[in-house]
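COURSE: Structural Biology Practicum
ASSIGNMENT: Worksheet 4, Part C
STUDENT ID: 0417
INSTRUCTIONS: Below are two proteins. For each, the amino acid sequence is given first, followed by its structure token string. Answer the questions at the end about the second protein only.

PROTEIN I
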Amino acid sequence: FFRAASLDDAWTIVTRLFTTPWTNPGFPMLMVGLIAGVWAYQFIWESRHRAVLETRAVRVALAAAMVVYLLFFSAKGGAFIYFQF
């Protein structure tokens, strides 16, 4: 939004935030998987199986998954926008 070339481009970005369908091929399936994973984690945490999530193996696996996600899927974006001022 802040890097839009014109007001028309900025408006297009804002409208697509609320109108682009979830079935758009551009929507990454990885994001759907992450949302489902967080939902499942919360469901298990609130159930009687909470002790499973507190085991060392599960905690290490979750931490490793977070590190792998950050290494492979973190944004390679440009400089922070306010450095331009």
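PROTEIN II
(use this one for the questions)
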Amino acid sequence: MAEKFDLIVYLLLIGAAIGGWRKGLLREVLIFIVWIPAVYAIVSIMINNFTPTEGLDSQSQASLKYIGMMFLGASIVVVIADYAFIKPTLRDVADGSLLMANKVAGLAFGTARVFGLIIIGMAMFDIYARPLDDVKIVNDSAVLSTGKHMAKDFVAYLRDNNYITNEVTMYDYAEEQERKIREQYDDIMPTGNAGIFNLGKH
């Protein structure tokens, strides 16, 4: 499974490199500038409105869906801005002797930009879904295990600078279900039910 994720990441980076080569550095930089407020808005909205104070499973799932919708929306905005304004403006800017240098630099910058977005996505997963240290696929993956350290550094930066002020407490689903069952027994039998759950432990 980890190999499949590595393949997906490699394909994304190859696609980013090809796109960067075709766009060139100037377009890549302007696209990046458009991405800055988009990503900032995503992270800010998520932290301010969707950070759970308790690790509720449904809340985490809703957070992940919201992350996906926000990134999709930001991508649409960037594509529209690129083709409507950026590309026509820069069509004749970089040519002649600058053409090859512009394309090579665009390849490098485009690849780095997409890799950075992957790191931010992993950081959001670490905050809202599950700690990356507990995800086997990430730890088994050659690419994602490297990105994990960068993502966790980003999360640490957010916490150290008080962009995230409350901890996300995840919980074990089976343990949570057992707690609910205990509460139900407490309502039915207010006393003595502690021994029911300890019978198999003696």
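ANSWER KEY EXCERPT:
Q1: The mean pLDDT is 71.
Q2: The two ends are 41 Å apart (CA to CA).
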